[in-house]
Amino acid sequence: MGPWNESLAILAEWDPVWADTINKMMADPWKSGILPPKFIELVCVALSAACTSLDAEATHRHIRNALSAGASRDEVLMVLKMSTVLAIHSFSLGAPILVEEVRARGLSFRKVDVATPACDMMRAAGQWNEAWDPFLELDPAWTDEVMAAGIAIYSSKVFSPKETELLSIALDASYTHMYAPGTRRHIKGALAAGATPEEVTEILKLCVTHGAQCFNLAVPILNEELARHAAATAMPAIR
Which CATH topology does 1-71+161-239 take? Predict the structure, then answer.
């Protein structure tokens, strides 16, 4: 599958036993039959395009595979929207700490009285995260703008609630993010929306298979550098 085939072929020459082992592990989610191939590829698009990854080659490959498996433009676009708003976790991490430190020093925030309809909609949709409460205290107007982007995802009919939660698990649990509060919240949401434990497990397995990008990137480079090194050391000394 693209660079993985090239990297795997090289790896099979250097370490055939481990190459066979890792290939079986990486291919398992595609062979288990628990998740549809189209959805597997959409999850891989999310993992590759996420603001925590930004892997252009893998994004190309998995978008191509998703379209070949029947994904629509709107489905891929929704995945990209979800991969973009993942960055909200910078605020989820930092805002509560800022609020605590400000209060510890006896300081206060400028009070702004503004309507926050998008936040109200997120609460009504059951998607409000208590970790976002400090956002409202710090900057309610901007928080509502952020939530307006979020509610467009959760109110969309492009994916079912279960699919949206499964995609969210992949983004939060990915090794480039590892955001535990969001992972727990979306696992709860997925199970409540009808996902099976096996489906959630497959999502987590796909997060692990994303580790193949290490070999996709580095094995061809190692092969090139070994060839360059061999050529350099084989050159006769210049007198």
Answer: AhpD-like (1.20.1290)
